[in-house]
Amino acid sequence: MLNKDQASERAQAAVERAVANGAEAADANFIANEALSVAVRLGALEEVERSEGAELTLRVFLGRKSASVSTSELTDTALDTLAERAVRMAREASEDRWSGLAPADRLLHGSPPALDIDDGADVSPETLKERAMEAEAAARAVDGVTNSEGAGASASRSVVALATSHGFAHGYAATHHAVSASVVAGKGSGMQRDHASHATRHESALEAPGDIGARAGERAVSRLNPARLSSGTMPVVFDPRIGASLIGAFVGAISGGRIARRTSFMQDMLGKRVFAPGITLRDDPHRPRGLRSRPFDGEGLPVSPTVIVEDGMLETWLLDSASARQLDLEPTGHGGRGGGIATSNLYMDVGNITPTALIEDIEHGVWVTELIGQGVNPVTGDYSRGAAGFLIEGGEITRPVAEITIAGNLKTMFLAMTPANDLRFRYGVNVPSLRVDGMTVAGD
C-alpha cells in the first residue's frame, strides 16, 4: 500500500494530467485500505478475510460543467486515460451553477495537524482469532446465554490523500481496531439477542475481549421475558449507544444541501433555540485518536473544533463549498469526500445530573436500548421508531420491554431533552443518556 506521500503524489499527478487535457480546475481524492478480520462461532473459526484496495477519483471542471471518474489503476498510463475520459465527459455534462473547487484562499496551508490516529495496525490473524475466541467464550459463559451469532476481531489501515489544481496536496493515514460479540439468550419463542463491541484507533486502547463478550451476554440475558406495555404518553430515556441517532438526524437537517433546497425541518432556525437550554453540541476533528479525527475536510479546507449548538441555540449550518455558494455563506470545513457534508467527532456536552437522578422522578416510562427501522421524516421532523429496552417504574429501571413504537416530532423532542452526565467517547458520535419527556409510546 502506498504511504501518504506517495498517495499525495499520485493524486497530484492525476490533477496535473487533467489540467494538461484542458480542465479549468480539478481535484483528486485517493483512498487505500488494508484490512484483516476474523470471525468465529461456537468456539470454531468461521472466516478469515483479508482485503486490500485503492481507488482514485478525479473530478474535473469546465466552467460550471463537471465530471468524476474513478480508477484503481495508478500507473502513469492509467492516469493519462483517466484524465482524458474525465475531461471528455465534462464537455458533455450539464451546467451546475454552484459547482467548483473550494476557494483557494481557504485551503489548508502548512503541515496538517498531528492527530495520533495511526499505529501501523500490524496485527496477525492469530491475534485476531484469540480476541474473537475470548470475546465469544466470555459471552457464552454468562448464565442464560443459549446460542451465539458469533464474535469477530479486525484491524485495518487506510491512507487518504487529496490534491487540487489550486495547489493543495496532502495525505494522512489512520488505523482502526475492533472486537465484537453477539449472542442469544433463552429458548424457543422467548429468545432474545444482544451484542457489544469496541473500536479504537490504537490497538493498545482496546478493551479486553473478555469484558466485551461478557457485556454482550449480560445484555442478552437482561432482555429475557419482556413485559407488555400499554400505550400512552410518557418520558423516554435513550441509552448512550443509541441516543447518537437523534444527533445524526439533527446533523442531516442542518446540512447545507437541505437548507439550500428548503427541505429541512430546521429551515430558518439559524440563531434560534433548537435544543433545551444548557445543551451544547460540538464537532472536534482534532481529538487525539478520535474515531473520526481528520486533518482537513474532503475539499482540502482546514478543520477546527466547532460549536454547532450552544446553550440550545443553533450557531451554524454545516456547509461544503457548493451549499455555501447557494446560501451566500462561507464553507465551514465540513465537506465530505465526493461531495456533501461530513462531521468528525461529534458530541454533546455532559449534563448536570447522574443517570440515576435523570429517572428518579419518572413514575412510568421507558429506557430505550435498541431502535428498529428508520422512521424519520427529514422535511417535517416527524419521528417514529420501533424500540426495545426496559420499563422505568417508580424511578427505577425494572423489567425488559419489547415490540413497542416510540413517536414524536424531533423539533419538540430536542426542546424537551435533558442530558445526564455519563458521556463517554466510544463512537464517532457520542452523547450521554438523554431523557425526552412527552413522547408517544405504542405497546398493546
UniProtKB/TrEMBL annotation:
Pfam families in the record: PmbA_TldD_1st (PF01523), PmbA_TldD_2nd (PF19290), PmbA_TldD_3rd (PF19289)
Superkingdom field: Bacteria
Domain Metalloprotease TldD/E N-terminal: 29-90
Region ranges (Disordered): 189-214
GO molecular-function terms, A-Z: metallopeptidase activity
Gene Ontology biological process terms in this record: proteolysis
Classification via InterPro entries: Metalloprtase-TldD/E_C (IPR045569), Metalloprtase-TldD/E_cen_dom (IPR045570), Metalloprtase-TldD/E_N (IPR002510), PmbA (IPR047657), TldD/PmbA_N (IPR035068), TldD/PmbA_sf (IPR036059)
Biased composition (Basic and acidic residues): 192-205
GO cellular component: cytosol
Domain (Metalloprotease TldD/E central) ranges: 119-224
Every Metalloprotease TldD/E C-terminal domain range: 231-443
Cited Gene3D superfamilies: PmbA/TldD superfamily
Similarity comment: Belongs to the peptidase U62 family.
Protein name: TldD/PmbA family protein
Organism whose genome encodes this protein: Stakelama marina
